[in-house]
Amino acid sequence: MAILNVLKAEHPTLRAKAKRVARVDASLERLIDDMVETMHATNGVGLAAPQVGVPLRLAVIQVPADYEEPHAGELFVLINPEIVKTTEPQDIDEGCLSLPGYAGTIQRAAKVTVKARDRNMKEYRLRAEGTLAQAVQHELDHLNGVLFYDHLAGPELLRRTQPAASQATEPTGDEPA
Fold first, then answer.
1. What is the pLDDT of residue 1?
2. CA of 134: how far to CAs of 89, 106, 119, 120, 126, in Å?
3. What is the pLDDT at residue 167?
4. Of 70, 83, 143, 144, which alpha carbon lies 20 to 30 A from 12's?
5. CA 29 to CA 16: how far, in whole Å?
């Protein structure tokens, strides 16, 4: 397994709609494992394939086990996911591994039901709430070329969550700041 490079905001791959996965082969299995390792190494809750430069409809999500909410600690592989049901929206603070050091308050559904396939291409449905529901919506946005700050009224609503000196990557001017 390997830790993959996470693309930063405004990389063209992050703005393209990802392609459906036709089948799982050894290279896709390896990609899934590498994405999980990368998600853990970067302290992420989720990671979409486009974030590591692969334009496929694939995401991995794992809410930390110490969170007191349903499904905490469970690892989900979502292949060709689709949200089939949502509930009322709520304001949520959100950030992204592709825009480190920034966050914004956006609206996400409090609960979602997603239909997806697992790493064996077996279809399943997941009813998610809390952090898991937020992560599902965030990662599916990535599969559609949408970044969390696209939900803000303007880039001035982004806020720094880390001092500039401690950020691994400074905004290049291509990102909203």
1. 84
2. 11, 10, 22, 25, 13
3. 45
4. 83
5. 23
Is 37 in the active site?
no
Averaged confidence pLDDT in the chain: 93
List the CATH number of the domain containing 49: 3.90.45.10
Domain coverage including residue 93: 12-163
- The answer to the question of residue 176 being in a domain is no
CA dist., res. 18 & res. 100, Å (int)? 22
Write the CB contacts of 22 (distance below 8 Å, at least 6 apart in sequence): none
Please indicate, yes or no, if residue 22 is contained in any of the structural domains. Answer: yes
Compute the residue count for the chain. 177
CB 155 within 8 A of CB 177: yes
Catalytic entry in 10, 29, 82, 139 = 139
The DSSP call for residue 120 is T
Does residue 1 fall inside a structural domain?
no
Rounded to an integer, what distance in angstroms lies between the CA atom of residue 140 and that of residue 103? 18
43: left (phi over 0), alpha (psi -120 to 50) or beta: left
- Banded model confidence at residue 155, pLDDT cuts 50, 70, 90: confident
Total domains present in the chain: 1
**Mean pLDDT confidence for 78-90:** 97
| In-domain check, residue 127 | yes
User: Which residue blocks in the chain are alpha helix, DSSP H?
Assistant: 26-41, 130-143
